[in-house]
């Protein structure tokens, strides 16, 4: 069974008095982000997916990693989903919107989240190498920024983390097999 644990992180939680998503809604939107991650994997990309949801609960942006496909370092799942959401709303402010993503956002994506005024960010796996929502740095808590999204970490943590582990394990196995084949060719 998939772990649905989540943990909130934001020192300004007591100031929030708006509509909260139900656990069922959170599960539904995170599953959509996982579906996006699976699409990324099917195309040989790192399996990371994202979904932006408006205050009424409508999905207004989706995305999955496309860095390799587009040969563009900015083509992260969050960036694509945010761009699509802005296009669909016809504005850059995503006030009161929520973002669901399978991996903790990096500094670039956290900056886009802050700048687009997304209210809540729900993410699955922690990113101990580049996470900007608490793992390496917490950009959402920087006092001098004018917007402080609320972060909820660990939604479907186990499933999201396992997708990434499996993806990178398969890459390492392919590289090992290629090295072994090269050694065998050279020894002939």
Can you describe this structure?
This protein is an alpha/beta fold and 188 residues long. It is built from 5 helices and 6 strands. The longest helix has 30 residues, at 157-186.
User: Could you tell me how far the N terminus lies from the C terminus, measured between alpha carbons in angstroms?
Assistant: 49 Å
Query: What does the average pLDDT come to?
Result: 90
Shape: elongated
Number of DSSP helices?
5
Structural class, by secondary structure, is alpha/beta
Oligomer: single chain
Q: Give helix % range.
A: 40-55%
Strand content: 15-25%
Numbering strands along the chain, what is their spatial order in the largest sheet?
1-6-5-4-2-3
Order of SSEs: EHEEHHEHEEH
C-alpha-based Rg, rounded: 18 Å
Query: Which spans have pLDDT < 50 for at least 5 consecutive residues?
Result: 1-6, 8-17
Q: Major sheet, described briefly?
A: 6 strands, mixed
Number of strands: 6
Observed structural traits:
40% helix, alpha/beta, disordered N terminus, 5 helices, elongated, 188 residues
Question: How is this fold's topology laid out?
Answer:
Layout: E1 7-9, H1 23-42, E2 49-53, E3 59-64, H2 67-70, H3 77-89, E4 98-103, H4 107-115, E5 120-125, E6 150-153, H5 157-186
Parallel strand pairs: 4-5, 5-6
Antiparallel strand pairs: 1-6, 2-3, 2-4
Summarize the structure.
The chain has 188 residues and is of the alpha/beta class. It is built from five helices and six strands; from the N terminus they run βαββααβαββα.
